[in-house]
Design a protein that fits this description.
Length: 684
Amino acid sequence: MLLSATPPPGPRPAQEARLLEEAVRHRGLTPPASHPLASITWLGPAASNPALAYRVSGDPAHLAESVRWIEAAARLPHWGRAHMPDHDLDAGWLLHHLSLALRWTEGELPEETASLLRYKLLLQGRRLYEFAVASEGGWWSSSYWQNHNWICYAGLATAGYVLGKEEWTERARENLGTVLDLMPADGSHAEGVVYWRYGVPFLAIHLDLLQEAEGVDWWERGGFMAHTFDYRLHQTAPGFAFNVDHGDCHDRRSGHSAALYYRLAAQYGIPQAQFMGDLASGPLLRAEAEHSGVRPGILPEAYLEHLWYDPSVPAARPTATRAYFPDLGLLAARTGWDDDATLVSFKASPGGGHGAWEASAEHRAERGHETLNQGHHHPDSGSFVLVSQGAFLAVDEGYSNRKKAAHHNLLLVDGQGYADEDRYHVYRDIPFERQARQRDVLVGAADGWAHATAEIAAMYAPELGVRRLDRTLVFTPSGRLVLLDLAEADAPRAWTFLLQTDHPTEELADGDRLIRSGGAVAHVRRLAPQAASVTSGVTEVAANPTSSTPELALTRTLHTLRVTTDRSPEGLFLTAIVPGASCAAERAACEEGHGVVFTGGAEHGEGRGCGEERVYLSPVSRRIRSELVVADAAAVLLAGGRPAYAVAATRVEVGGRVLLEAAAPYTGVLDAPDTPTTEKADRS
C-alpha cells in the first residue's frame, strides 16, 4: 500500500477530501531556514501529504508544495537539535515521510531537488543505522517495547526500501520480528494510550512496508497487532472523545489515530475499529487536532487514512462493556458507551507488564542489555480511574517527570509511596521480585460484575515491613464501586488512602465526600475505618513530555483527599463510590468477611434502575459468614433480577440455598442455566 500508494479498492471521498485539505494546510507558512530548537517531525508530513495529493489529483500545485518542504528539510545539516541530533525521533519521522515523498514523486521532482533529497536520505539513514548498531543493548536500538524503537526503525526501513539499502531493511526487519515476538499477545501497552497512538502506527507502517516490499506477512506474528485495538477501545471514555490516562498521557484527548483504526479494521475485519476510524476522522477530528498535546498530531495522518481505509469493512458501534488484559493486569468495565455512562479502569502489574519485565530480566542477565525503557511507566499498580456522566471523577496524574505513587489513587505507608520512586525511570535497577499483580479476576457478562484484587505490598520499601497490601475493586452492574484495602506490616504503621480529583471534594453533613466535576457527581462513603484523619489538599504535577522541545512544560493540579489511620500493624479501608444520584451504601453485618449493600436511588445512565446490589468480600481468608450469604469464596456478588457471581469459590450458600459446591475454586456466574453443578465443578 504505502510504497506503491495503492489503497484498497473502492470509493473514499471523505479520505480524499481529508488528504487534499491537509496537503494545503501549510501553504501560508514559510519553511524554517535553520533548525529550530523544537522538534521538526512535522516537516515530514508537510512534504508527504502534498506528494500523495499530487499523485491522486495530478494538481501541480501539490507537487510544488511538496518540493518546498522537501528542500527545507533536506538543507538542514542535522535532523534534531535539542536531543540526540540525527539519532532519534526527528530522524526517524523525516526518513519515513521524505522517502515516501521521493517514491511517490519520482520522475516528477526537479532534478536538483531529487538529487538533494536522495543524498540527504542516504546521509541521514547512514547516521541512524550506524547509531543503532553502535548503541545496541542501550536506548532505543534495543528498547523493544518503546515508541522510539518502532519509529526510528520504521523510518530506517522506509528509506532502505526506497533507496535499496538492504543492510538497513534487514536490521529493521530483525528488530521488528523481535518486537512482535515480545509484545503482549493481549494487545496492551504499558506506555499508555497516548504513546499507543504515537508509536503503534509505525509498527503498522513497518508491517505494511515489509509485506509490500518483501512479500512477508507478519500481521499475525505474536498476536499483539491482532488484539491491540481491543486495548485501545476499552481505554476509551464513554462518548468516545476522551481516553483513560494510565501511563504518560499529555492530556485526555490525545488518544485517537483514525489511520491506525482503519488499518486494523482492514487487516482483521474489525467493524468497531472502522467505527472508531470514522469517528476520529469525522466528528471528533477538529477537537482532537485542537486540544491534543501530541505533535504532529492527527491531521498529518491524512496520507495513511487515504491509503489504509478499506470501504468494504462495515462499521459497527462497540457493545462489549468488560475487558481484561492479563499482561498489564488491566481491568476495564463500564455501564455502556453513551456520554453519561460510567467506566472504571484498574491496573496492577510489574513495570512494563509481565512479559516485558521477565524478558528484559533475561536480556540483562544473558546479554547485558537494557531493553526495557520505563520512562513512560508509572508507580500506579493498584490505582484506578473513574469516569461518569461525561466527566473524570477519580483521576490519574497524566504525565510527570518525577513519578510518585502519591500522584495516583493509591495508598501510602507512613506517608511513603513506592520504593525508589520520585524519578523518571521508576522501575530501573529495582529487584526483579518487586512486582505487583492482579488475582481473582472476574469479567462478568455484558451487564454483569467486574472484580479483581491487586497485590502491591512488594512495591514498598523493605524497611517498611509491608507483608500485605491487597486492594480489591468491585464494579457493579449499575456502575457503583467498592474498594477493600487490606494491609499488614511487621510493625505499627500509619496507612493513608488517597483519592485524586480534578476539583476539591466537598464534605457532606453525613460525613460522605462529594466529587463534583461540572454537572457530574459521585458520593464517596467511608465504611471503614470509623476513626481516621481526613484532610484534603493540592498536589502539583509537572513534566516536560519531550526532550526534543525543552521549553514545553505541562502542569496538572490534582486535588487529593487523604484518609489516614492511627498507627497499627494492620490497616483496613472499605470504601463505596456511587456515581450519579445518591443511593444508600451501608456496611452489611458479617461475622467473617466484609459486605456492602446498595439500595435506593435512580440510575443516571442508559435508563437502568438502581436496584439493590450486595457485595461480599473475603479476599484473603476466603470465608464469608453473614445472615444472607455463607460462602468459602473471595467474593459473592448479588444484584436483584440478575444472576449471582462468585470469585474463587468452593461453596456458596445464599438465603439457605446452596448455589455451588466444588472441589476447586470457581469464578463465574452461579444461578444461571449453565451454572456448574457439583459434578461439573469437581471435574474442573
